[in-house]
Amino acid sequence: MSLGLSAIVAAVAIATSTPSFANDPAPSAQPTTAAVSVKTGQVIRDADGRRIGVVDSVRDDQVIVITATKMVRVPVSTVSTESSGLKTSLKRSQLR
């Protein structure tokens, strides 16, 4: 083999090899966000801090909220706990 061909073969072998890191931790199967404890009767506010209504129930990944005029669904993934209670990252216009 010529020196040029040997260099190309070595470069291809290095480029296509997968590095092995024995000390790397395995990827976590758990979500990185902490679960929020949502309970019936809690007040929930929108992203602007205005009161939306009271939690009626939690079904699957939705918080069912009773407002003054209707029931709306708020994704649990948008809800956080603050000192004033529950708050969603959604604005009132985004709720349905």
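the 2nd protein, sequnce then structure:
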Amino acid sequence: MQTAVATAKVWIGGKWCESDAEGVFEPENPATGEKLGREFPVSRWSDCDRALSAAVEAAHALEKTPPEKIAVFLEAYAKELEADAEAIVQAAHEETALPASPRLKDVELPRTTDQLRQAAAAARQGTWRRPVIDQAKGLRSCYAPIGPVVVFGPNNFPFAFNGVSGGDFAAAIAAGNPVIAKAHPLHAYTSQRMAEAAGRALKTAGLPAATVQMIYKLNHENGARLVSDPRIGAVGFTGSKGAGLKLKHAADTAGKPIYLEMSSLNPVLFLPEGLKENAQKWARELADSCTLGSGQFCTRPNLALAIAGDATEAFMQELTAAIASREPHAMLSSTTRDQLHESIEALQQAGATLLTGGKNVPGKGYRYSSTLLRVSGKNFLKAADGLQREAFGNEVMAIVAADEAELLQVLEHLEGQLTGTVYSAASGADDALYGRLAPVLRRKVGRLLNDKMPTGVAVSPAMNHGGPYPATGHPGFTSVGIPTSIVRFTALQSYDNVRPDRLPDFLRG
């Protein structure tokens, strides 16, 4: 007789509550395809409504809360995550098939606690407020909390971008906003463990109980209703272009700011003089980058660009061999693998030629063969829209332009990207060409790189993890890099001839 599985509770108003659920889901281990034996609810609107009402009360209380208490919470939360690291890492490993070490334990979890501590420092310093004082005109302005923030976490970073622990979460909390986290269903138990750690930290800091709340899953209608609710201040989203645009439409219609990270092909240009000396080295670097973590990074290269010539052909031979030799690892889910295959087939239908890969790997779990496609610059320009479809996974497509003029045309037709990279000769032999190509690429990307692969995003105040549409919904903001990332979840407030004793302390100078 099979033992009944208890359905997890949602975290609303500081309590773990029974969900008003319209259904349940049970996560799988993508390395084996087996169910993990835990059920989680799909919430009806009533769960959202309760969370929104509690968040409004918390927002009012946080307006009067000293920044020090917010900083204490963020630091205490980092400590709680570190204390429960073994269980959290194991949960994420089971739910995502990402390596426990070094990826989860040694890289992603320390990154997550680091950005929480950076957010704590920003909360104390208050530089994100950007106060401006014009004494002659009696005017003062600053940024202030915007109100309850909904954060939708993605599937590929169970810690660092999680709705209940990641960069959007940390930025929103640092500004003094309560957060309603929409956990990603692919790592629901991981999110539950992290939310429990956040709950302990809230008690340590003495913050309002509804400063952090979490639900697991919503249908599309309720997701759109949530981001457009009058009680919401702003929304942070990381995920697919399709889902992001649906939420954007709902939020825009309601006049609610929504910050989205959605889709990026991250083009890498290989200039001809450098290729003559580095074809093998650069091919291996590209193969390593686009297959790392099964290519499930928003900054992995999906496009490689070069000008036709003997060095480029040597590079393509090396790249084909390197991609073919990369052992496929488990993807995040069967859906992720299916969508990758659909995208690769669509790219071929649009005119790309398959050089290696392009098929599911048999056996347990969800794996896909590392894939390389090729298209000429001429054919790319004929079907630029179809050939810019994102293939989220261990895939890369090479665009070989006939000459410099055609390569410039290809660059002009690229959509907005998170990153753009140029590899060139160390001798300076490619510098003149770089000078003509880089300005065009610069307009298309949020972060421009030289001679290094774009995979990975450093948590630094100088980082821009954003870019022109459709990489994000707005090119003026970043989702990584405190204090700049905090400004997304603020409102600009101005004071005109307000009496000094009625001003916030930091505007009385």
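Residues 100-125 form the longest helix (26 residues). The chain has a mean pLDDT of 96.
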